[in-house]
Amino acid sequence: MRPREEAERPRDAALSKPPAGRPGSGLARDEARGGPIRDAAVGGTQRDLARRNGRGRRGGAERSMVPAAEFRSYYGRPIVKPAIWHREIAAYLFTGGLAAGSALLAAGGDATGRPALRRAGRVTALGALGASAYLLVKDLGRPDRFANMLRVAKPTSPMSMGSWILSAFGAAAGVSAVAEAAPLLPETGALGLARRALPPLGTAGQYAAGAVAPALATYTAVLLADTATPSWHAAYPELPFVFAGSSLASGAGVGLLAAPTDQAEPARRLAVLGGAMELYGAHRVETGGGILSEPYRNGRPGRLLRAGRALTAAGMAGALLGRRSRVVSALSGLSLLTAAVCTRFGIFEGGIASAQDPKYTVVPQRARIDENARGDKTSSE
């Protein structure tokens, strides 16, 4: 029997698992490689997950083992490419609106026989337009790029239409502003002829600029809303109200600063109308877009827009209550101008912030997908 037992022993030894640590055992191989034992690794992983999720032997609510979703993108880059515009464009939004509001102020002053308002509006419109052209060309990099945009008129392109609007407004506003220098020319000779011809040309240019002014004030709102930037695109119904109101309020601010109190009544009315439009539009932008309104309430954009609301309200109150005080009228005008700057920069920076955070792209997309799925299910039923 002994030879048979000895013959069977190697087979049993081959079928049995060698003791841990002996040559040929799994532990020895794993230790030599630096890797864990599978059973111990599985058990340790399960214990770690149970401990991490609050699950132990003593009970406790079972939680999902899937971690909370984080809105990330590949290599940490935004899902939507932020606009390449810099703060020169935010300043361009303000100066363009100021030019439009000042042109309307000049038209109102001329129609009501208030030369101080007319003069302040014409000069400011031309100066703001020059600043707008400088800021736009600086952002474009080369002046010939602006000229190239005038080669084609494309109604479906806000940038193309904006270039033509800016050019048409500039020609009209330039003529009306130059006409203010007519009284300085001599009465005889060729310059005397120019002195007599400039006032009617200035009046025609002034009303032409006033006719183009609403388009100049609001086309930048369409330009922002036409991009893929989430918070700009979602606010497309409200941005024209914000920009139009801001333009009127800034033009009224110029009138309150430059005109004496007995000629500033049209500027006061313009301040109330423009301020009301701006406050309504800004409130809708900050509250009516759901999650896409968050960038307008948080951080630097939120602080700018809150400051703009406060200054607009203060400017409106001063315009109404300071009819006999030159100081109060001037402070009201300064408040309205500062409010317009804060509002334009707040809108601009809020849109940039929404493009930099993937959440503002992913969450609305998922909501639209779920809504469409519910609609398809309802229609199929």
- Globular, elongated, flat, extended or rod-shaped: what is the shape? globular
Share of helix among residues? over 70%
Number of helices: 15
Determine the strand fraction and express it as a percent band.
under 5%
What is the CATH top level name? Mainly Alpha
Compute the CA-based radius of gyration: 35 Å
Low-confidence stretches: 1-60
- Which structural class do the helices and strands define? mainly alpha
Taking the sheet with the most strands, its summary is: none
Overall structural domain count: 1
CATH topology, by name, is Formate dehydrogenase/DMSO reductase fold
Number of strands: 0
Element-by-element helix/strand order: HHHHHHHHHHHHHHH
Question: What separation lies between the terminal Cα atoms?
Answer: 81 Å
Shape-level CATH architecture: Up-down Bundle
**Overall residue-averaged pLDDT value:** 82
Can you say what the CATH homologous superfamily is?
A: Formate dehydrogenase/DMSO reductase domain
